Amino acid sequence: MEIDINLQVCLRWLYEQGVTFVVKSFNKERLKENLGIFDWELTEGDYEKIERIPQKKMMLKEEFVSAKGPFKSVEELWDGEL
């Protein structure tokens, strides 16, 4: 069975961070791979590599407003408080 290492590392990282996540598959082999994340732990070296991954933490206002959604404009979304 060939395992997608990147996916396994991502799932294991989520688990070790205490994040609740849901994976979906009807493929028996993929289900086994997903459950395989409980058989090992990330090393300190793994965490160091993960910390060096560039992150995008910016959200554009357009992602929160929509003519079809509850907030039609940024003004409707923003109440002025942090």
What would a concise description of this structure say?
The protein has one domain (5-77).
Please outline the major beta sheet.
none
How many domain units?
1
Total beta-strand segments: 0
Q: What's the end-to-end separation, in Å? A: 49 Å
Poorly predicted residue ranges: none
Helix vs. strand class? mainly alpha
How big is the Rg? 19 Å
Amount of helix: 25-40%
User: What fraction strand?
Assistant: under 5%
Calculate the mean pLDDT score and round it: 86
The shape is elongated
Please write the string of helix (H) and strand (E) elements. Answer: HHHH
Helical segment count:
4
Give a verbal description of the structure.
The protein has 82 residues and is mainly alpha-helical. Helix content is 39%, strand content 0%. It has one domain (5-77).
Walk me through the topology.
Layout (H helix, E strand, L loop, with lengths): L4 H12 L11 H8 L8 H8 L22 H4 L5
Entry keywords:
mainly alpha; Aldo/ket_reductase_CS; oxidoreductase activity; NADP-dependent oxidoreductase domain-containing protein; NADP_OxRdtase_dom
